[in-house]
Specification:
homodimer, 402 residues, alpha/beta, eight-stranded mixed sheet, seven-stranded antiparallel sheet, globular
């Protein structure tokens, strides 16, 4: 019994409302409470005290890869999540189909175009020559989302984005340092792509008569893809990832975990938790640990929806945890960060953590929530310490010294 | 309600006496106990476990500037606290008027000369030429205390002090590394200043017929002044400092906080706590957080005075905290380090910490003292983690990643 399932409920931690409740403390969750009572608990800071984690950096640390050393930027992680065959040195961006009118971006999501429409339009911009020895490769993912790759020699991600995160004039990319030749070359290539894509998409018959044509592609999150030492070499364990969101799959793939696609795992409230649970049990046969990600907790936090955040936690307790318990393995439940509903955003507060199984030392805590776990015997864990703790739980932690 | 007041009771933490009490645990402090009960608690190490913090290094960390990277030495911080217009590259020292007799320093404080007497004498040594292109600038501060600046090119703070912290022969300054030319030049300039100051002060009519003439100036704490990125740029917050002691004002000024002078804030038991409280409320309008420093807790520790340390804590509870509560903001109360009365010195023990306000998760702790806070859900915070925690409390912590 040396395997583990690591459940991350995205943005799980919260702050008390006027009555002193958090969605987690208010949720009906007899299974998690029992695991907390039988196991050990604490608080987890995926980056560090008070620091607000992003979704990408937090998961790198959760998987044992220090973000400060391994973070490649969002682009490469999104591209890996979309199963794009990246090559070392590629500059990858997160991209959007957008509506361009009279020199301005009027809709950053092109009227939330469907995935099917985006797929057809992506043909026009799949591969364009945007400089001497530089190709631009585009791939649509979900709805208006996509990824853009600049492939060639002497490229640099140190450039400004063409997606300003707001409507208005379409920004030109520029090197962060005007003297940086590679960055200048890359910014010029990106600008050329933007011009060519706009011309081609504007002429596309699919965009005719559309109120919000998808006639531009804007890009952000530039990063260079570099291979990292896979988890199996670095830590001697095989990990599987079960997640709906592309970014989480991307991070898992980047560190060498196997990404398992589950039908019905959508990253929404409707996500099929039972299917995820069954897939986790299946993956446990061939892996040392399985990471199971639930996105909806964070989504409801961003919506400021206390009730639905509480409800999805109860649903996880009812539909996911019982299945996982059949895995006869250690179970870790935590979040990647807090996302207080009152802030509608990530925060730097720690997230509750429980570790259950035969190789843990039970503490006095009998409930799984932000308050009770503050008294747990694990205390405060930071960064990659959770992964190291899991390795030890699995009896896979290597000796340091002799 | 996203602002904060950070109260630092200098040297607050202590060790138990024969009956098991500390000044804090013995003090009548219903307000702080209530805040502890309603808020969350822990222990704070301003530098690190077991390390004895200085007043300067601890406050750099408290303000979010890692001392290991930003500590300029005591001299520049004292000079900034005295509002001396430092220029980048200045070598600054903490200086004392002293009594010099027959080649020896016989009193390091010149009979604790008054500020008024020191002001008159300082005219003789205000600006002296002490080398090719090197000026020595002296400014008296409080009583026998003052600051000395060496201004010129190719100077270095890597020299030995002329204040040996004890009576006896007046030490000559020397470079720490005999091969270091700039340090040699600086030591020579300092020695020249010492000679010139002794000659001039010895002849001064104000020193005639004095049993303990203030006829020498001794210096220590050499450091180079370099500007640092101000807090508002680095962290996006505006901080105000309310303190009696020059050193605390100096550290605050160094990191770009606004130093607010309060009439009656003396850094002694008689300090006007109500005036400080009112000034803090006033400063809160135009700042994100206000730092309020109380020195007397540490002074009584150095005197080994348990009763008076206990009394000043009770006085803070009665006269300062109620005013601060009217600020309708988060309140943090802690120390910069422990100063056990039985040691009459700083120690490496952590200091109790409480964080109160709407965005904290209450724990089971119901009292504010060294023992109770050891069970608090904040656990142990170190170094700049307290500042990061405060930033998050104010919803001003920036995201790391995306």
């Amino acid at each position: 019994m040396t395997k583990a399932i690591l459940v991350v409920l995205d943005g799980l931690g919260d702050l008390p409302d006027a009555k002193g409740y958090t969605p987690l403390s208010a949720a009906l969750k007899p299974n998690m409470d029992r695991l907390a009572e039988e196991g050990t608990t604490g608080l987890f800071h995926s980056i560090g005290r008070g620091i607000v984690p992003g979704s990408d950096t937090s998961h790198l640390n959760i998987f044992g890869y220090e973000y400060s050393k391994y973070y490649p930027g969002r682009g490469p992680l999104e591209a890996l999540g979309a199963k794009f065959p990246l090559k070392e040195g590629d500059i990858a961006f997160r991209a959007n189909f957008a509506t361009f009118d009279n020199g301005k971006i009027t809709d950053r999501r092109a009227g939330r175009i469907t995935t099917e429409e985006a797929k057809v339009l992506s043909k026009y911009v799949q591969k364009l020559k945007v400089g001497t020895g530089i190709d631009a490769l585009f791939q649509n993912t979900v709805e208006h989302r996509g990824i853009l790759i600049l492939r060639g020699k002497k490229l640099s991600p140190l450039i400004t984005p063409t997606d300003s995160h707001s409507t208005g004039p379409l920004p030109k990319s520029a090197p962060l340092d005007p003297k940086d030749r590679n960055a200048k070359r890359t910014a010029e290539a990106l600008n050329k792509f933007t011009r060519m894509a706009t011309q081609k998409l504007d002429k596309a018959k699919e965009n005719k008569d559309k109120r919000r044509p998808a006639n531009a592609i804007i890009a952000r999150g530039a990063g260079t893809y570099t291979k990292v030492e896979p988890m199996q070499n670095r830590y001697g364990v095989r990990g599987a990832c079960i997640a709906g969101g592309a970014l989480y799959k991307g991070v898992a793939s980047y560190v060498g975990m196997d990404v398992i696609d589950v039908k019905g795992a959508t990253g929404t409230f409707e996500t099929d938790l039972k299917a995820k649970g069954k897939a986790a049990l299946q993956a446990l046969w061939s892996h040392d640990f399985v990471f199971v990600h639930v996105k909806a907790t964070d989504s409801f936090s961003h919506d400021g929806n206390f009730i639905e955040k509480r409800n999805i936690i109860a649903k996880v307790d009812k539909e996911l945890i019982p299945t996982l318990l059949r895995g006869n393995c250690h179970i870790i439940i935590t979040g990647d960060h807090s996302s207080p509903v009152k802030r509608r955003a990530h925060s730097g507060d720690p997230t509750p953590l429980l570790v259950w199984g035969p190789d843990v030392r039970p503490d006095e805590v009998k409930k799984f929530d932000e308050f009770a776990c503050g008294g747990g015997s694990l205390g405060h864990l930071q960064g990659t310490e959770l992964f190291q703790t899991m390795l030890n739980l699995m009896d896979k932690s290597r000796m340091c010294g002799t």
